[in-house]
Amino acid sequence: MCIKNFIWKILLCGSGRSWFLDFLISYFLRKVDDAMQCETSSRKNHENSFLKCDAKNCTPGEEDLTGKIRILASVQIKENCPQVGQGLMDLLKNCLELETEKTTTILCGFVDHFQSSPSEDFGWGCGWRNIQMLSSHLLKQHQEAREVLYGGSGFVPDIPSLQRWLEIAWQRGFDKQGSEDFDQAIYGKRNWIGTTECATLFRSFGVRARIVDFISREIVSRSNGVGNYVSKISPQVYGPMDKYLSKKKNDISEAVSISYDVKAKPRVQQALIDWVWSYFSDNKFKNSSNHGILVSQKAPLYFQHDGHSRTIVGIQSRCQRNGSIHYNLLILDPGHPTESMAKSLKENAGWQKLVKRGVHTLKKPLYQLCFIDPGIASGEEMERLKNLQSVRVEV
């Protein structure tokens, strides 16, 4: 009470008020500087620890890798995720419940939204942000994954820390061939990544991450341009989009735009939608019935296409008057600010444009999904996970 009275008397005095405000401003500026120096110091310690570990042995052995893992688990930095109070998925569920049309909606459980930062990763970090979204779900809803992911830290690491985890995965023998696209090093770089890197990272912890490709036979069968390019890709090793992202951005983009008419032949898009429905519903009920809103035990999906990736957190179906089924993917886009999405959902205004994506909006001839099967691998299965395979759906 004495301190309160003292401050109150200072504020009543003009000169005292000026002095006191100057003091507060100076105090908080020092706090901000201290926080920034602490973060910079932490990042430098992070890097120095790895430099020392790298210097021990040019060809990392098991002991060296164990040391790196132990160091990274202790110095990795937690990603700063804007908190929206009730939770984004709960807000989305509330909005879906307010819709008047008869639909069946299947949502995955908890997912935090991680947005790309203009000052950090805008234009190249969407893949990492989607990995963070999948990680938030696994850490929150799957205890077995929480125990193994990121050294058992229990939190979602920032992008530089994730880059280090991916490098360790490569050094442990996960997706050796894919690591060559990045010269076995990705820390501090702004390379685009895709489903291959997502699956590799999760597999290195024993998480059963799988890849499925959706591609038009029209493209696969072409004898030149994209056809030659796609035919070089083993369907048991890589999907077309990962090689595209790392090597062939301009060539394939131009060839696809000439050779593929998505409006006339939306087979790839429909195959994708059907697969996503089967995944979330687990084939337990028909899409033509009105089931309201259901929460699936399945993890969200890493959704890759030409130039961007997003996270699929659910799917909605609606039976139309002509008997056909209309679908909407429910998507979290790292390109959208978290606060803007939360505001739209809280106000139940404009959120559909941010979250819903119908078949007509899917205009690419190539798509990939990375999905998570339940359970944690060990022993011989862990060794098999080092060889990345994908399932190709050609339509």
UniProtKB/TrEMBL annotation:
Q: Which UniProt keywords apply?
A: Hydrolase
Tell me which residues make up the UFSP1/2/DUB catalytic domain. 105-370
Determine the domain of life of the protein's source. Eukaryota
Q: Name one GO molecular function term.
A: ubiquitin-like protein peptidase activity
**Cited Pfam families:** Peptidase_C78 (PF07910)
InterPro entries, per this entry? Answer: UFSP1/2_DUB_cat
Protein name, entry field = UFSP1/2/DUB catalytic domain-containing protein
